[in-house]
Amino acid sequence: MSAESSVLVKVQNLTKYFPINKGILFQSHIGDVKAVDDVSFEIYSGETLGLVGETGCGKTTVGRTILRLYEPTSGHVYFEGIDLMSLNESGMRAFRKRMQMIFQDPYASLNPRMTVGSIVAAPLDVHGVPDGKDKKERIDELLDMVGLNPDFVNRYPHEFSGGQRQRIGIARALAVNPDLIICDEPISSLDVSIQAQVVNLLEELQGRLGLTYLFIAHDLSMVRHISDRIAVMYLGKVVELADRNEIYLRPLHPYTQALMSAVPVPDPDIAETRHRVILEGDLPSPAHPPVGCNFSTRCPLAKEQCFTADPEYREIVPGHWVACYFADQFVK
Question: In 146-266, where does DSSP find H-type helix?
């Protein structure tokens, strides 16, 4: 997957700040919430890149900024070599047909006043797919593809369970044959038994249609199951990126080590021998991140340099990127 020709999406120094304003009539800019701060990674065609981290670390903002649902503060997103940030509205509209999103909350992301058929047909209408028999056949095909009865086209979202609603959202995302789907915590609001069904469906569709996923989640076990590579975010920055097995078996960043030590192990004998890393302190505010390394205030390895300068995000071994001064000591 390292070949340059196989890169579908390249995110380069992506930054998204939300301004903090004071006052009602005469607003003054007093600061910024640094939701995404200088993030870079690549997504290869046909792979699933998992994006994990604590709630509020900027995962969802990364996904929405890639699609330009949020306009970036700075940085670039290249889709097959085309800089999406340089496109005007009409140019971006053509690329949105190739990039779709599955939203986190299946209860809030479906319009309760629209039928299932209308919801799934919405992307077809936006991108000018012909009406009539062809359109109806496409809607029936999409519903069947995600495991729903095509006879449900005239029902409303409130008549479905959470898992069924998320399947409707997946059908909507597939309607215009996208290349990239950003899955924004698509299983976090579902029951555990339903989560497995939805993840299996996503894997089946990827194999059948050749899809590429950016899978955003905080369930580390599920991310390891579905992802090819995993990127770990902390307070707006990517601190580590590697192959899924590499990052689980040999995490090099202290924050990743803490995350992996929290993953439940089904074997009690193995669980007893594991070293549990407990982080001290609270997560800093993205409006006032620490000087130097963002993780310095909670890191057990932090030294003076960590509080003064941000560590370089570097490839410490082939395919394994880390932003930590002391990552070399964990390389074996």
Answer: 162-174, 192-209, 220-226, 244-249, 254-261
Cα 144 from Cα 205, distance rounded (Å): 12
CB 215, CB 51: distance < 8 Å? yes
Q: How far apart are CA 323 and CA 300, in angstroms?
A: 15
In 3D space, the residue among 63, 21, 71 whose CA is nearest the CA of residue 231 turns out to be: 63
Give me the DSSP letters along 62-125.
HHHHHTTSS--SEEEEEETTEEGGG--HHHHHHHHTTEEEE-S-TTTSS-TTS-HHHHHHHHHH
* CA atoms of 21 and 81, how far apart (whole Å): 36
Distance CA 156, CA 160 (A): 8
CB of 221 closer than 8 Å to CB of 190: no
Confidence band for 237, pLDDT divided at 50, 70 and 90: very high
In the DSSP assignment, the letter for residue 18 is E
Q: Which region among 108-122, 262-276, 312-326 has the lowest average model confidence (pLDDT)?
A: 262-276
End-to-end alpha-carbon separation of the chain, Å? Answer: 24
Q: What residues pair up with 239 in beta bridges, in sequence order?
A: none
Cα–Cα distance, 272 to 253 (Å, whole number): 23
In this prediction, residue 270 carries a pLDDT of 64
Residue reference for tokens 């029902």: 155
DSSP state string for 240-253:
EEEEHHHHHHS--S
Beta-bridged to residue 20, according to DSSP, are: 31
- CA torsion sign for 113, 118, 123, 127 is negative
Of the pLDDT bands very low, low, confident and very high (cuts 50, 70, 90), residue 22 is: confident
Mean pLDDT check: name the lowest of 18-22, 124-128, 247-251, 311-315. 124-128
CA–CA dist 15, 65 (Å, integer): 9
- Residues 199-223 pLDDT 10s: 999 999 999 999 999 999 988 888 9
Phi and psi (nearest 5°) for 247? Answer: -75, -25
pLDDT at residue 271, rounded to an integer? 60
What's the predicted TM-score (pTM) here?
0.91
